[in-house]
Amino acid sequence: MWKLTNLQHLDIAGTGIKKMPEQLGSLKCLNTLTKFMVGEGSGSSIRELGKLKSLQGTLSISQLQNVVPPKDAMNAGLKDKKYLEKLALEWDAKTLRPKSERIVLESLRPHTSLKRLTIKGFGGGIFPDWVGHQFASLHLWEYKNISSLPPFDQLCSLKELSIVGLMELLQWVVSFVAIVVLVLLRFSHLEA
């Protein structure tokens, strides 16, 4: 990969690639990276994303259960990627390490200019405060071990909210200011 130092766009979404090329962080000119899969062990470290300062558009980060140690997620530098518009964060639904997953998600706080956030498979129990901030579109899918949601009541910018598969959610106080689209599916324990 290091020979492609001038590469600007790498779209691997939908390709079936199971692991990232080595030394992805050496592509300093990369503006578009549609998908990044965190490798196991010595595989693709989430630190590689931190070296890609110019990312913009859409980015999906999957296999977040492989971030070890969890604090390493901070090295992705998402807070500094002000040109990202859409971000998807995904954990494998087969694993459950609540404390690690919570630390990883807290460390992946994106820049405040992000418009759309999708979080899938998170099992950390509690969402960090930033999840309830600034997004126009928020999608929460397939959660394990989540019994409460962040407060959405003061989100004037939130226009679209979809929540799918929160089987452990017991109660939720709902008050929305500007929601245009609301999708709620598969809540097995929610009290009316």
TrEMBL record:
Q: Which UniProt keywords apply?
A: Membrane, Transmembrane, Transmembrane helix
Tell me what this protein is called: Putative disease resistance RPP13-like protein 1
Entry-linked Pfam families: LRR_R13L1-DRL21 (PF25019)
Q: Which residues cross the membrane?
A: 169-187
Q: Which InterPro entries match?
A: LRR_dom_sf (IPR032675), LRR_R13L1-DRL21 (IPR056789)
Domain (R13L1/DRL21-like LRR repeat region) spans 46-165
